[in-house]
Amino acid sequence: MRKTRNWLIFTIVLLVAIAWFLWWQWPRKVTVVTVSRGPAVEAIYATGTVEPSVTLPIASRQAGHLLQLAIDEGQTVHKGQLLARLNDSDLTSTVTELAVRANFARQYFERLQTLGQRNLVAKLDIDRAKADLDAAVASVNRANALRDFMTLTAPADGLIIKRDGEIGQFIPAGQPIFYLSCCAPLRITAQVDEEDIAQVRVGQAVVLRSDALPKQVFDGVVSEITPKGDPVARSYRVRIGLTDPGQLQIGMTVDANLIVEKRDEVLLVPTFAIDNNTVWLVTDNQLHKQAVVTGITSAERTEIVSGLAADSQIVTTLSANLREGQTVRIQSSQP
Question: Are 309 and 35 in contact (CB under 8 A)?
Fold first, then answer.
């Protein structure tokens, strides 16, 4: 009975050993990629918004009901062109009243001047009448100016990019009715993380993409860097000038890659194939752990400064079960 048990234990141990040996020696399927050459780009990623370089809000200095809209969003206007009118009937009545008072003050002053030439009135009375006349004229001019503010005109040539207000709506003083884009081309305003802002400089090249125009790439240049950052968002505002805005429109969001460094014809491998500065190299169907020195790193590809030769094959299906000298079988190869 004891011999039978010992034989059974021996058999189990032997089978386990054989299974372990076969597992060790049996070729593992791996996916490899061939080391290639190409450009390595180190870039700072940021998100931005397309906006006009100059945006002018157009508002009335006086409150009133919107009486007329002569222009709408998306229309091009010229300097001095009528945009809108607010109801100015109260101010018109005020102007009329003050004009009558000013006319009376002028007649009174002229009458006193005539009497003064005959020495029938004191010079002080004439001076007082002159002051009253000047004050009346100033009041008329001020009322006319306020009435003119109820008529909105374009301050420059440009494009109306937004209109806020409908006919009959009460518009408070100082509330913009129109926003005018003028005087300069479109630009990008992006927010760059404070950890990266030290690497940003004026004149730096930028590559831009927009989800709204997925097949297009736009070139830009850093034109301005705001010296004061946002302590809450921990970011700095960066202005990017566009070489050619193409089909970009105001308000579109873009992904901006600010180029820090670019090197051509370097060895490149997928970033996910590197683990703690080592890769698994396949040579004669066997695995070899290889230390590498990396350079420029992006989310997709990493530059290999040393440790690999061109056309080397490295494993992309990393696993904790990979071992030095293990025999493998290439399941698929990526270029």
Answer: yes
Predicted TM-score (pTM) of the model is 0.59
What is the rounded CA–CA span in Å between residue 312 and residue 62? Answer: 75
Beta-carbon contacts of 206 under 8 Å, excluding residues fewer than 6 positions away, are 188, 219, 220, 221, 222, 240, 256, 257, 258, 259
CA distance 331 to 30: 5
Q: Residues 240, 188: contact at Cβ < 8 Å?
A: yes
What are the structural domains of the chain? 27-39+264-334 (2.40.420.20), 88-149 (1.10.287)
- As separate numbers, helices (DSSP H) first and strands (DSSP E) second, the chain gives 3, 21
pLDDT, one tens digit per residue, over 103-146 is 998 998 888 888 888 787 788 888 888 898 899 899 889 888 88
Q: Which two tokens stand for residue 192?
A: 């760059």
Distances (CA, A) of 166 to 41, 66, 251: 51, 7, 23
What would the DSSP string read from start to end of 51-67? Answer: EES-EEEEE-SS-EEEE
